[in-house]
Amino acid sequence: METYRLTVNGRIYDIQAMPNETLLSVLRDQLDLTGAKCGCGTGDCGACTVLLDGEAVRSCIVPIKDAAGHFVLTVEGLARGSELHPIQRAFVECGAIQCGFCTPGMILSTKALLDRNPSPTEEDIRAALSRNLCRCTGYARIVSAVLFAAELLRKERERA
Ligand code: FES
Ligand code: FES
Q1: What are the pocket residues of ligand 1 if the criterion is a CB atom closer than 6 Å to any ligand atom?
Q2: pLDDT digit string, tens, across residues 106-119
Q3: Whose CA is nearest to atom 2 of ligand 2?
Q4: For the whole model, what pTM was predicted?
Q5: How many CB atoms are located within 10 Å of the residue 155 CB?
Q6: Residue 153: its pLDDT value, please?
Q7: Which ligand is nearest to the CA of 137?
Q8: What is the DSSP string of 8-68?
Q9: If you ran DSSP here, which 8-state letter would residue 80 be given?
Q10: Which secondary-structure segment (H or E) carries 158?
């Protein structure tokens, strides 16, 4: 066992873990942050997506030793107090959530996209989310939700 320091959703944690334990298992089993899901465990489905220093990563294939010293954002850290983040609001309002298993990963991949490209086209969105699999929605409502989230964030910036 080693000790690894990482910042998750703005809080610093000293984690005891084996070097190759995955970030996903640390988040879920040690920190009780169960938003990131284990779908495949092999980096293929995107259900475990979190942000590492702002980049979307598949936490099921990131060893904790590589996450140490970095900033992790999970879906639990996105809401603003009791208010949903605009991306979360857009997913709810556009009906882009059915079983919800893919949703935390979709939302964090969306955040990474909108942080680097605030006005994505439908094509940009489909490309950015192409490795996040959803078995329920057929993706059309997810694309609508991302476009709506971009609009909400744009309005928020204009008001600021
Ligand atoms: Fe990590 Fe599928 S659980 S990519
Ligand atoms: Fe069920 Fe996407 S809402 S997998």
Answers
A1: 38-41, 43-48, 58, 60
A2: 999 999 999 999 99
A3: 134
A4: 0.96
A5: 11
A6: 97
A7: 2
A8: ETTEEEEEEE-TTSBHHHIIIIIS---SS--SSSSSSS-TTEEEETTEEEEGGG-BHHHHT
A9: B
A10: helix 140-159
